[in-house]
Design brief:
The complex is a heterodimer of chains A (94) and B (266).
Chain A lengths: L1 H7 L6 H18 L3 H15 L3 E3 L5 E8 L6 E8 L2 E4 L5
Antiparallel strand pairs in A: 1-4, 2-3
Chain B lengths: L2 E6 L7 H14 L4 E5 L7 H5 L9 H6 L4 H4 L1 E2 L6 E4 L12 H12 L4 E5 L6 H8 L3 E6 L3 H16 L6 E7 L1 H6 L5 H8 L2 E7 L2 H9 L10 H13 L15 H8 L6
Classes of the chains: A alpha+beta (94), B alpha/beta (266).
């Protein structure tokens, strides 16, 4: 009964919704076959390319695989999230 | 004309063997000559589930190694016309069979049978590779649990990578009461996650345990809800459009009363 009241006020999530949410996240990683090494490799490659054009703060670089709504808003799709703080943009490419 | 169907899941214990036994029996009962192949070498169980454990002379490994002819390893189920089993070997391991040998065996059986049903072992290693090698299509079994759904997703990916196209999902052991409470993922939830077509929904049913105890597939039990669900799966395999049983409908007073009186035809 307590649990039901919690649900009523939206405090407790139904366990099946928790299951679904967790599954969706874990499957994004499974499907992308992502290991920590994979992300590290990706990270270093991205840095290599970007530093040709701009000066970035490598220590504050944040790259992760997450999920996002698809364009039509119908489904959840995996997304590569990258937050790359720029220190300075080089002019050499002009 | 004939079709090779693999029954697989990734995770163990979700009902591959039970489903294989029931679907195979159902296909035979509807007049199609059917052979079941147990590819779980070292951990064979389809024979006991079918109640044919006392009739084994030769097995799958004997066939591929040429110790016997295919015909000699076929155990005829005397209760159901047109139903045969090739059991797995118990004292060997998965490496005793190669995918190419499975393809060859399936092709040989195609000449004799309408349906060749392959019971796949759990896992994604050699046994899985053997089981899917000769398959035209696949039925992926899952239960409404995170572990089983996750493994099913992996299996679906591997099937596609191995060019077994368009696998279909069978959700086993669904508990309508728990779904109604929001404590079990619904069929829609699972389909939403796995994004594949559905071929069956089998409710959790005590009768499965009883029928497995006896070695008589539940599909022959007219009172079993799971048996009814498997009969529907068989019809869908044959290409019929069969509506899915409503297992999660709101059980108000009247449906409950009707059920009590045995009036509810599921």
């Amino acid at each position: 009964m307590l649990l039901d009241l919690g649900r009523l006020f939206g405090r407790t999530k139904r366990s099946k919704d928790v299951a679904k949410e967790r599954l969706k996240l874990v499957l994004i990683h499974d499907r992308a076959n992502v290991s920590p090494q994979f992300l590290e490799m990706l990270k270093s490659e991205i840095i290599k390319v970007i530093t040709n054009y701009m000066d970035v703060d490598e220590s504050a670089l944040d790259i992760q695989l997450t999920k996002t709504k698809s364009d039509d808003g119908q489904s959840v799709v995996p997304a590569l999230y990258a937050n790359i703080p720029i220190r300075n943009i080089r002019n050499s490419g002009k | 004309m004939s079709e090779v169907i693999v029954i697989t899941s990734g995770k163990g214990g979700v009902g591959k063997t039970t489903s294989a036994a029931n679907i195979g029996t159902g296909l035979a009962l509807s007049g199609h000559k059917t052979v079941l192949i147990d590819t779980d070498i070292g951990l064979r169980n389809l024979d006991v589930v079918m109640g044919l454990e006392n009739r084994i002379v030769y097995d799958l490994v004997d066939v591929v190694e040429g110790n016997c002819r295919v015909k000699q390893a076929l155990i005829k189920d005397k209760r159901y016309d047109g139903l045969y089993l090739i059991p797995a070997a118990q004292t060997r391991d998965k490496s005793a069979v190669k995918p190419s040998q499975m393809i060859q065996l399936c092709d040989e059986l195609r000449e004799e049978f309408d349906y060749i049903l392959i019971d796949c072992p759990a896992g994604i290693e050699q046994g899985f590779k053997n089981a899917i090698a000769g398959a035209d299509r696949a039925i992926v079994i899952t239960t409404p649990e995170v572990s089983a759904v996750r493994d099913a997703d992996r299996i679906i990916g591997l099937l596609e990578a191995n060019e077994v196209r368009n696998p279909k999902l069978l959700v086993n052991r669904l508990r309508a009461d728990m779904v109604r409470r929001g404590d079990m993922m619904s069929i829609d939830d699972i389909i939403d996650i796995l994004a594949i077509g559905l071929i069956g929904v089998v409710p959790d049913d005590e009768k499965i345990v009883v029928s497995t105890n006896r070695g008589e597939p539940a599909i022959c039990d007219n009172k079993s809800l799971a048996g009814q669900a498997f009969r529907n799966v068989v019809r869908r395999i044959k290409g019929e459009e069969v509506p899915f049983m409503s297992l999660t409908e709101d059980q108000g007073f009247m449906p409950k009363l009707k059920k009590l009186l045995g009036l509810k035809a599921n």
